[in-house]
């Protein structure tokens, strides 16, 4: 990674030392660096994503300085795994061809050493989503991003839940929405992160991001984010953009912090959910690296979290 020339906060030399525990100040410095580096290098983070929010995902990726390309077919997924810095896979609306596309793309990412981000939207609806999440167990995502019920359901499918499902409502997601609190998903999130070796981001009123060793809680955002579709989907796409330049934990933290700030600002500037969506893209576009690095974030050790 190149040192961003205009960054006021200096980051430690080894930006990829993701497994070691880092201080809050170090993580914040890496977050600032990620925001700068994306704006300077315009990295490509291609997506296989749902037809409901595809346009919003691409616009959010562009707003933070990334580049977008949406594909559907197996050989396209393999091709963009080689071309892009990271790939985003969102299971929101499936087509039969995804039975081949999703495992082929995850395999290609693993072979190329590229990170990929999974949003298991709508897990539990039909059988193909379940089949695909089980299939990618062998080439897992660097970042797993979803709402609380989706993360709990993935931990269960991957056989990682232990007694973590004791905290869950037991209802699973309601369509694409959560029926569980973010806190109820903490043990599932830590277990998934320890299994993947990457990061897990759980969204909600207060977000939780973990790499299995540390757990960060990030506040901000707005309830209006639940009144538009795709705030979660686009958060995954933006996490993939940051994963092009930063390790999974830093990338997930950066995207989550940016969303919380942009959500707060957009809520102040809008007159309802329609103008909120436009104001949100404006706010994402105008965020500075220093603002993202100073976003509300509380860091704790995951050692007390009995994940397995
Ligand atoms: N009550 C809330 N207050 C503030 N921010 C919120 C609230 N609920 C969600 N958010 C924010 O909205 C974004 C999306 O989170 P959410 O949990 O709604 O995702 P999701 O259910 O996957 O969304 P979707 O599937 O519709 O894209 C995150 O940035 C999160 O911080
Ligand atoms: C509403 C909806 N349905 C399938 S995907 C999606 C976008 C939000 O997850
Ligand atoms: Mg979602």
From TrEMBL:
Coiled-coil residue spans: none
A single GO molecular function term of this UniProt record: hydroxyethylthiazole kinase activity
SUPFAM superfamilies: Ribokinase-like (SSF53613)
Tagged with keyword Mitochondrion: no
Gene Ontology BP, a term: thiamine biosynthetic process
The protein's required cofactors: Mg(2+)
Superkingdom of the source species: Bacteria
Binding site for ATP: 145, 203
Reactions catalysed according to its record: 5-(2-hydroxyethyl)-4-methylthiazole + ATP = 4-methyl-5-(2-phosphooxyethyl)-thiazole + ADP + H(+)
InterPro entries according to UniProt: Hyethyz_kinase, Ribokinase-like
EC number: 2.7.1.50
Keyword DNA damage annotated: no
Gene3D superfamilies with a match to the protein in the record: 3.40.1190.20
Family matches, as Pfam families: HK (PF02110)
Entry keyword set: ATP-binding, Kinase, Magnesium, Metal-binding, Nucleotide-binding, Thiamine biosynthesis, Transferase
Pathway the protein acts in: Cofactor biosynthesis; thiamine diphosphate biosynthesis; 4-methyl-5-(2-phosphoethyl)-thiazole from 5-(2-hydroxyethyl)-4-methylthiazole: step 1/1
Role, per record: Catalyzes the phosphorylation of the hydroxyl group of 4-methyl-5-beta-hydroxyethylthiazole (THZ).
Family listed: Belongs to the Thz kinase family.
Annotated protein name in UniProt: Hydroxyethylthiazole kinase
Species of origin: Adlercreutzia hattorii
Gene of this entry: thiM
């Amino acid at each position: 990674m190149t040192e961003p020339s205009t960054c006021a906060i200096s980051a430690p030399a080894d930006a990829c030392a993701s497994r070691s525990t880092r201080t809050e100040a170090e993580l914040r410095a890496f977050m600032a660096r990620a925001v700068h580096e994306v704006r300077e290098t315009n990295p490509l983070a291609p997506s296989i994503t749902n037809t409901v929010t595809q346009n919003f995902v691409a616009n959010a990726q562009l707003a933070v300085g990334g580049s977008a390309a949406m594909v559907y077919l197996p050989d396209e997924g393999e091709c963009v795994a080689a071309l892009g810095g990271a790939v985003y896979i969102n299971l929101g609306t499936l087509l039969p061809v995804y039975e081949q596309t999703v495992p082929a793309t995850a395999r290609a990412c693993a072979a190329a050493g590229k990170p990929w981000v999974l949003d298991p939207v709508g897990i539990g609806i039909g059988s193909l989503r379940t089949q695909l999440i089980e299939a990618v167990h062998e080439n897992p995502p660097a970042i797993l991003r979803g709402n609380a019920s989706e993360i709990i359901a993935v931990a269960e499918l991957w056989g990682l839940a232990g007694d973590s499902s004791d905290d869950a409502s037991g209802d699973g997601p309601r369509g694409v929405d959560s029926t569980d609190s973010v806190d109820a998903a903490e043990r599932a999130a830590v277990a998934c992160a320890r299994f993947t070796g990457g990061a897990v981001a759980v969204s909600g009123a207060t977000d939780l991001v973990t790499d299995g060793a540390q757990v960060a809680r990030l506040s901000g955002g707005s309830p209006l984010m639940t009144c538009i579709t795709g705030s979660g989907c686009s958060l995954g796409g933006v996490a993939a953009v940051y994963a092009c330049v930063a390790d999974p934990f830093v990338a997930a933290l950066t995207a989550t912090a940016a969303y919380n700030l942009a959500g707060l600002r957009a809520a102040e500037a809008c007159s309802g959910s329609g103008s909120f969506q436009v104001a949100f893209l404006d706010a994402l576009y105008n965020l500075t690296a220093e603002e993202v690095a100073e976003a509300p974030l509380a860091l704790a050790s995951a050692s007390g979290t009995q994940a397995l």
